[in-house]
Amino acid sequence: MAALELLLGNEPLKKSLSAALRAGRLSHSVLLCGEAGIGAGFAARCLAADYLYPQGGAGAAQVLEGKSPECICVEGEGASGEIRVERVREVRREIYNTSLSAAGRVVMIPRAEKLNRSSANALLKELEEPPEGVLFVLVAFSEAGVLATIRSRCCAYSLAPVSEAVCAAYLRKNFPNGPDTARYAALFGGKIGTAKKCLSQEEGRARLADALSLAEFAQKKELYGALTLLTRYEKERFAALEVLQLLRCVCSASVRGSAAAKSPLSPARAVLCAEAAGKTMQAITANGNGKLALTLLAARLTA
Questions:
Q1: What is the pLDDT of residues 60-116, one digit of tens each?
Q2: Residue 93, class by beta-carbon neighbours within 10 Å (0-12 exposed, 13-18 middle, 19+ buried)?
């Protein structure tokens, strides 16, 4: 079975990529776009596996696990995750230093929006004159986030979340002893990756519980409860961002009117909470005063 068949949903995408692979018409540079949690990274590994190992086998399995020497990953550094020009310049050398046990090479860039102008220009040279047999697979949340010079050299494809029913079935199969999988599928709108992360990590489940508590405090306008909960995150920047992102997922489920999500928020209240959470995330990301930002958030959520 082709690795792309492992990707749930997105039938037109799989059909198009598989047909291009079989016919030898796949562009040497592919851009896969999809919001966080819907499986764009997994789709990229599936495409890489089918390109490098059309017959499947152990080599393809290594690619899917992210452990193949023929699949070169170009990632960012530091808190910003910015991809530096030096890292891109290393790519050509790495291509020729890898073993020749596969049909070609794949260069994977999991966060293409993190390319700065210098690193994008260096990559552009590779895309314009790609080494023979090399496939570049870029992944980004959206096409708009990728510099236009890079977008213009890529064949772009978009991924969509699977249906809540498909997501729930996947979660039931993989987490038979887990909590309410239908609720998780509804809360995350079919984003399997995000739901899987929450279910598989105790920390993720705890943060989702906090996000739901915040939503309840917001609906009931309980300022003290919101302040007490958010105080725990004043010195944990990344944890705070995760909770706020989860709160936005809860808000989105409310706006969609998903009964299975069991969101405590009314749709109107959810819109206000999502906006407040978004502003707070921007403030925290900009290295603002975390304590002040979260205190203001509690006031906005319960106003």
A1: 999 999 988 889 999 988 777 899 999 999 887 888 776 666 778 899 999 999 999
A2: exposed
3-class secondary-structure state, position 139: strand
Q: Which portions of the chain are predicted below pLDDT 70?
A: 1, 98-101
CA distances from 140 to 37, 120, 150, 197, 201 (A): 12, 14, 12, 19, 25
Mean pLDDT for the chain?
91
- Burial letters 221-252, b for 16+ CB under 10 A, else e: ebeebbbebbeebeeeeeebbbbbbbbbbbbb
The answer to whether the beta carbons of residues 161 and 184 sit under 8 Å apart is no
What residues are paired with 73 via a beta bridge? Answer: 108
Can you give the pTM of this predicted structure? 0.84
Please give the helix or strand (H or E) that residue 32 lies within, else none.
Answer: strand 29-33
Q: Which two tokens stand for residue 229?
A: 């909960």
Distance, CA of 217 to CA of 68 (rounded, Å): 47
* Exposure letters 59-85 (e unless 16+ CB within 10 A, then b): bbebbbeeebebbbebebeeeeeebbb
d(CA 216, CA 220): 6
Alpha helix (H) residue ranges in 24-163: 40-52, 58-64, 85-97, 117-128, 148-151
Q: Are 46 and 53 in contact (CB under 8 A)?
A: no
